[in-house]
Amino acid sequence: MFKTLHPDLGSILSFPKHVMLWIKSGYGSIEVDFKKYTDFQDRLLFLSPGQPIKFTFGDFELALLEFPPD
Predict the structure, then answer these.
(1) Over the stretch 57-66, which tens digit does the pLDDT of each residue have?
(2) Cα(30)–Cα(54) distance, rounded to whole angstroms?
(3) Digits of tens for pLDDT over the chain (70 positions)?
(4) DSSP string covering 10-65, please?
(5) Comparing C-alpha atoms, which of 56, 54, 52, 44 is closest to residue 14?
(6) What whole-number distance in Å separates Cα of residue 2 and Cα of residue 65?
(7) Alpha-carbon gap, residue 40 to 43, rounded angstroms
(8) How far apart are the first and last CA of the chain?
(9) How far apart are CA 67 and CA 60, in angstroms?
(10) Which of 61, 70, 69 is nearest to 2 (CA)?
């Protein structure tokens, strides 16, 4: 089941499980693995446990899906 998420700007998020983030809408800039991205609306991001993501500026609406450890 997807959870809706509106991240705080400047905060660094990480998750204890594998996750899929769906950037449903928004604008701005994010950083993943020290790389900055600006073209990502309506895209999927897959993150490993503990992998950080930072929303540096803008406004985003996300859907989050966490995967079980197995």
Answers:
(1) 998 888 999 9
(2) 5
(3) 788 888 889 989 999 999 999 988 888 999 998 889 887 777 899 999 999 999 999 988 889 999 987 7
(4) T-EE--SS-EEEEEEEEEEEEEETTEEE---TTEEEEE-TT--EEEEEEEEEEEEE
(5) 52
(6) 5
(7) 5
(8) 17
(9) 22
(10) 61
Helices (H), 1-70: none
Sign of torsion over alpha carbons 31, 37, 43, 45: negative
DSSP state of 28: E
**Paired tokens of 10:** 């400047």
The structure tokens 């950080």 sit at 52
Give the separation between CA 34 and CA 3, rounded to whole angstroms: 26
* One-letter amino acid for residue 13 of the chain: L
User: How buried is residue 65: exposed, middle or buried, by Cβ count under 10 Å (0-12/13-18/19+)?
Assistant: middle
